[in-house]
Design brief:
alpha+beta, two-stranded antiparallel sheet, 17% helix, binds zinc ion, three-stranded antiparallel β-sheet
């Protein structure tokens, strides 16, 4: 697991502060997808690693599948708000 310190931003959905990104192997890059650890809200990284809101339908189908799988795994009940 790789964790990267990122500029602190507020989750656009639950407003909690987010300042880290974790992934099994990768470090975040611009346009990578991010899920809020607290509420499951979907975002994408900007080049400076701040986050912008995004919607599932805007992602590539393989990314959509990965997001759905992650939501399932983590049991986010609010996921329908973001699809
Ligand atoms: Zn959130």
């Amino acid at each position: 697991m790789s964790t990267t310190k990122t500029p602190e931003v507020q989750c656009h959905a639950c407003l909690r502060p987010l300042d880290r990104a974790s992934h099994a192997e990768a470090t975040p890059e611009a346009d990578d997808v991010s899920l809020c650890l607290y509420c499951g809200a979907l975002s994408q990284f900007n080049a400076d690693l701040t986050l912008r809101p995004c919607v599932l339908a805007s992602l590539h189908p393989s990314e959509q599948a990965e997001v759905r799988k992650t939501w399932e795994r983590l049991g986010f009940k609010w996921r329908n708000r973001f699809t």
